[in-house]
Amino acid sequence: MAVCPGDLATYRDVVIAKQATDAFYQTPLKEEWKKRGITHLVIAGARTEYCVDTTCRSAISNSG
């Protein structure tokens, strides 16, 4: 699963377009995560202090 531009995705990736700093906000990310039985996430990005930090905090809130 990836949150990335479509030209970087492989055939196994799910591309999720986001409109906010939180990749979980108003996207199907949580549903895809749960449907696939994913238990660990690796989150990376260029703006760690902003979007990546927000998504990490949201992942913790959405893990239950």
Instruction: Provide the helix percentage.
Output: 25-40%
Q: What is the end-to-end distance?
A: 19 Å
> How much of the residues is beta strand, in percent?
under 5%
SSE succession: HH
Give average pLDDT, whole number.
Answer: 81
Sheet having the most strands: none
Give the low-pLDDT segments: none
Query: Using DSSP, what is the number of strands?
Result: 0
Structural class: mainly alpha
Shape: globular
Number of helices: 2
Gyration radius over CA? 11 Å
General description of the model:
The protein is mostly helical and 64 residues long. It has a domain at 19-62. It is 34% helix and 0% strand. The longest helix has 15 residues, at 48-62. The chain is globular, with a radius of gyration of 11 Å. The two termini are 19 Å apart. The mean pLDDT is 81.
Search tags:
64 residues, mainly alpha, globular
Describe the secondary structure blueprint for this structure.
Blueprint: H1 29-35, H2 48-62
Summarize the structure.
By secondary structure, this protein is mainly α. It has helices spanning about 30-35, 50-60.
